[in-house]
Amino acid sequence: MADSRAIGVFDSGLGGLTVTKELVRHMPCEDIVYFGDTGRVPYGTRSRETIKKYAAQDEKFLLKHNVKLIIAACGTVSSVAADSAVSLPVPFFEMVSHAAKAAVEATKNGKIGVIGTAATVASGSHKREILKLKPDAEVTACSCSMFVPLVEEGWYKEDDIVVKETVRRYLQPIIKSGADTLILGCTHYPVLEKAIAGLLGGGVTLINPGVAVALAVKDYLKANGKEKLDKTAGKHSFFVSDKPDSFKNLASVLLGEEIDDRKVEQVDIGAL
């Protein structure tokens, strides 16, 4: 039976728009409700308990909008708080397992790199998922905590000297490991893809978790008859927990569409 309800997406800030972009690309007719917790970004430096609390509030907000499924477009939530979704009344999609599967399918030498926030890397979630699929894989993970603030500030151009130097310093362990595949373990990181690819070269395959989860969601909707029947362009609603100005400025780059004042609403997420 077709399901016209929207897809719910949440992230600690704006990085989840890279996932939303892939959802729109692969499922242009689906409606989407996006929540970016811009008032509390980043999640990656928070305690496990705090991340779980924030994730539960974000999920509760999306459920109020009657979504048919929820995507945690946040590597940190996917890594350390995915169990917060166990009791949800709708399907839940995290980023880790789908990215791990794509990396295992892509690697040729069995050496896979993972970059993410401090919380994501400390959880070891990507390594566990990779080893389930490929027990002999060699996994090198490193935290790139400054990447999120760079993106949130709008510093992502590959020729920016600050971006280039930050990327170079963080990725030294990945280069030394000889990895031929790298998981961008935070949804902000695809924004820095050109800078990362410029450093690592064409011999390293970059795994964008947004692509992996978008394809998984598309397969789920089709297999379960949950696709939206109306084939007109989907409607997209955006909510943030801080002033929407920075969201609008960067969203056009991350999402590939202009966002006007009427499309972004500020909400008090802490009140939920």
Description:
The chain has 272 residues and is α/β, with parallel strands linked by helices. The protein has 12 helices and 10 strands. A 6-stranded parallel sheet has the order 4-3-1-2-9-10, sandwiched between helices. Strands 6-5-7-8 form a 4-stranded parallel sheet. Helix 1 packs across helix 11 and helix 4 (96-106) crosses helix 11 (209-223). The longest helix is centred in the N-terminal third of the chain and has 16 residues, at 48-63. The mean pLDDT is 92.
Short description:
The chain is of the alpha/beta class and 272 residues long. The chain has helices spanning 17-26, 48-63, 75-80, 96-106, 118-123, 125-133, 147-152, 161-170, 172-177, 193-200, 209-223, 245-255; strands at residues 7-11, 32-36, 69-72, 92-93, 111-116, 138-143, 181-184, 205-207, 236-240, 264-266.
Name the average pLDDT: 92
Biggest pleated-sheet summary = 6 strands, parallel
Count every helix, treating DSSP H or I runs of 4 or more residues as helices.
Answer: 12
- Strands of the widest sheet, in order across it, are 4-3-1-2-9-10
DSSP strand content: 15-25%
* Unreliable residue stretches: none
CA-CA gap between termini: 32 Å
Number of E-state strands = 10
Rg estimate, integer Å: 18 Å
Order of helices and strands: EHEHEHEHEHHEHHHEHEHEHE
Q: SS-based structural class?
A: alpha/beta
Share of helix, binned: 40-55%
The backbone outline, from C-alpha atoms, is globular
Helix/strand layout:
Blueprint: E1 7-11, H1 17-26, E2 32-36, H2 48-63, E3 69-72, H3 75-80, E4 92-93, H4 96-106, E5 111-116, H5 118-123, H6 125-133, E6 138-143, H7 147-152, H8 161-170, H9 172-177, E7 181-184, H10 193-200, E8 205-207, H11 209-223, E9 236-240, H12 245-255, E10 264-266
Parallel strand pairs: 1-2, 1-3, 2-9, 3-4, 5-6, 5-7, 7-8, 9-10
Helix pairs in contact: 1-11, 4-6, 4-11
